[in-house]
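Database export, one record per block. Field names are fixed; values are copied verbatim from the stored entry.
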Amino acid sequence: MAQTIHRDAGDFSGGDLLGVRRRLSAVESERLSVVDAGIESRIATRALDAWNRDAFAPELLPDLVELGFGDLALSGATHLYQGLAHAALARADLSLSALVGIHNELIIGMIASFGSEKQRDTWLPRLRSLQALGAFCMTEPDHGSDVAGGMETLARRDGEEWVLSGAKRWIGLGTLADFALVWARDASDGNVKCFLVPTDSPGYTATKIEHKIGLRIMQNADITFDEVHLPAEALLPGASSFNAANDLLCVSRAWVGWQAVGAQQSILAILRDYVMGREQFGRPLAGFQLIQGALAQVAGNLALSTSLMADIARVQDEGPLEMAQAALAKATVTRLARESAAIGRDAMGGNGIVTDFGMAKTMCDIEAIYTYEGTHSINSLIVGRALTGVSAFV
């Protein structure tokens, strides 16, 4: 007896389960369609090979520029469009999404907001076309969640120069970037400040971190600064204290939430296609109740995540996003993505642990976004502090 296939209303095939995309203007909706098509045809399949080789993929940069990712943060688009575009790229590859997000939210964002006129004129045109890349250097070998108060990298004045000493860890593109934005504590006043450091400066050494299980296209590095001499104008004038980083880190947490949305879109699509095409016990996997339950749970997590992030975008369009709001979104949506990946991997059995089928790759990448831009635990504590007025950490 032939199996009956039921078609329900809504874009369940495209992952927009509650029609969030319909909130875009006609112009932005059409623009996003072009981005979706370009990512599918020019990015998605080529990214897997680079991921498997643990290699950067410079050949993809021109395509990312053409699709508008070189200067998305300066494009004037709504936050909802920007978020959905980030999700579309994350759906294809979270590594490239990490590169693009850090490039827009932290590198371009820092220079545009806090750089000098000379720094903006020198770097923004090249950054917008991805002809130059920057590295954002904050985390240290011994200081991650507590880096604001525990930062050990030092900057001291020596006549008309600054001299940097110290080390950073987990720095994206640290071995490839043209310059690094380095946060260091001023030895004279104790304030944490940001410096633009050309990566060919004597004393700058970057070593690739090997053996990562996730975000393998994004090349992370350990960096040391051995008495790196910089001119006085290397200081970003608007970043003379750590407070300058807070707004950017807040926005960056929101972007990671959109990464988790894209990852869950990928999980749902991979799992649905797999169970529709594979048979066990003489019938399609899609017809088994346990499999349909798994699909429904992944779809529910995706719908919750997308709706939450769409509301975050609304808050951003209406006014400043508060850190507790960003932390709530980042912690919640990456947790749901992690849960969805585990469900998808289990439903695919042994084929869920090889990258050929996509699920294992996405699952490993989610482990990284669950942790970076504030770990799940730290973001949860930020929310708890907002709820109670009592801080669980210094």
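Remark 1: The mean pLDDT is 93.
Remark 2: Residues 243-277 form the longest helix (35 residues).
End of record.
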